Amino acid sequence: MTDLTAELVVEGRVPQTPALAPNGHLLCYVLAPTSRTGDHLDTALWLADIKGDGAWRRPTADTATESRPRWSADSRTLYFLSDRAERGTPQLRRLTPADGVVIVLTGWRAGIVDHLPLADPDLVALLANDEPTEQDTRRARDRDDAIVVGEREPRARLRLLDLRTGQVTTPSVFDGRHVVELRQRPDGGPLAVLTQASADKDYGPRTGQLHLFDPATGTAEDFGPVEVDAQSLAWWPAEDGWHLGYVALTPPVLHAGTAVFDLAMSSRVRRNRTADLPMCPTELCQTDAAPLVVFADGLNTTLAQLDPDGPTPLSQHPGHLDALTTTPDGTAIAALTGTRYEPTNVHVGPPTGPLRKITDTRPELDGIAFGTQRPLAYRAADGLDLDGLLVLPVGKSASDGPFPLVTVVHGGPDDRYADRLQLFSFPSARAQWLATAGYAVFLPNPRGGQGHGHEFAASVAGRVGREEWSDVLTGIDLLIAEGIADPDRLGIAGGSHGGFMAAWAIGQTNRFRAALVDAGIVDWGMLAATGEYGQLDGALSGSIGWEGIGPHPHDAVSPVSFASRVRTPVLILHGAEDTNVPLGQAVYFHRALRYFGAEHEFVIYPREGHSIRERNHQLDVLRRTRAWFDRWLRP
Questions:
Q1: Which pTM was predicted?
Q2: 576-608, pLDDT tens digit by residue?
Q3: How many Cβ atoms are within 10 Å of 318's Cβ, its own excluded?
Q4: Distance between CA atoms of 520 and 501, rounded to whole angstroms?
Q5: How many CB atoms lie within 10 A of CB 383?
Q6: Looking at residue 83, what DSSP letter applies?
Q7: Over 26-60, what HEC string results?
Q8: On the CB side of 566, how many CA atoms lie within 13 Å of its CA?
Q9: Which end of the chain is more exposed for a tag (fewer CB within 10 A), N or C?
Q10: What is the bridge-based pairing of β-strands 514-518 and 485-495?
């Protein structure tokens, strides 16, 4: 067996966005490195005839960010985005697998955001921001570039590329709204189009509207507002005509479980097709008939078919099943999935299963000794059924305990731990990295996350840090009672919302001997004011500062309010360019801890956003994390 090193963790490659051709023979996916060494992430397309020799090949030798592979209806052509010509500015390219010829189709100066080959073989729908005008160029050159919020904001607009002429036209539709997604009806009819009033992540998801666009006539029809954060469009035929579905948050609150909404186009009647289910839909996948639905289902994933009477389960898969793609008849699928001890790879098969692994993107992990991972099922203090994962130190069994225990809380909070290999550089998935250093790791799924239905997810709205924190403590106490966790050597960690939970924990109790707060929230009022998802964060914390003179409900659930109580040594990590949870959150916590004389270390990573992407920074995070817990949790 081989020891796991920090280099092995960060220097891997992961598959993304598989695209199965309509004929079911050809499959393309994007292979991306887990870390970046320069300004750009160099990705590559890989292509194979999975019904033929199955041999994978790179259709280009470009150093570029290649992304979003899409097949033509006849499976003869693959369209994709590449920024080879100008890094950071993707353009549409066309590959003919039969002869290996790649042609550049666009030179749009603003770059192409997304694309959709249409049933008309001469048309491709594009999403792209407006090209810069001469005035824009002059203003940038002269630095006369004051930003007036609401004016000249970047917005992706629908455009049509005529492959016969190479001309790109912009239909005058949707009143200049930001287009987020397109899906053409399976019979080659109109496009369903989701738009938002703005690309702003705080405002946009709450302003969604649905439209139809006819590419033959260039005309559009509005179908009105949709639920918050609508996405994943899919058409299907029914006895009363065409239906259109999408996944969105369940009304009326801004933090909730997701649901599949079904709009009958003839009557315009809209229904929630997944109400009261104990799982959460994550994506719809269109076929020529009933669409497929992927459900986060506890620690695993269920694939179902959306039949007239409701979702019909077809198969269950361990851990995650992501990026589903299918043939038009729905008889063959490809998706990303893995196991407890195998990393994510591309798998293919029938929707009823089983699926066959057809890639091996991380052979360097063969022979690595991993800690034993097992599911946990337990009940909260109020009787609610909960689950999570336990990862034991490498080479140890539960009977060898008690061990130093690090509890790592996931982000979101609308995320979840699934029963897959916990080996990523982001803090909420470093369990195996800590297990190789002799730690037991508890990965709880407290209320607020996906995988257990709408009510479970919505229960934290306005109550962050309350029952969800009790859920985490109940799991820790269970592991102590079972002799797995040493009560005198407990650590707590997390990133994003998990970072909030770690910061919250050490202001509520002195049970932990060490904590790690990575991109964590410490003041909900500040987050609502400056973070990307302001009002959604306000829904979580229960209030926003502009609602009147305080104290506000969010003050009572902000960790910085309890900084005077902190006695636990804290490692604070944060990206300097984080716009989701801005750096000011970490600065505020650091200043409060310094004021009260609390032991802590504060590390800022230049150029990094909400996730740490650069190779050397990822290595530093891994080594620093382990060294921090070694310092405080070792005998």
A1: 0.96
A2: 999 999 999 999 999 999 999 999 999 999 999
A3: 17
A4: 8
A5: 6
A6: -
A7: EEEEEEEECCECCCCCCCEEEEEECCCCCCCECCC
A8: 31
A9: C
A10: parallel
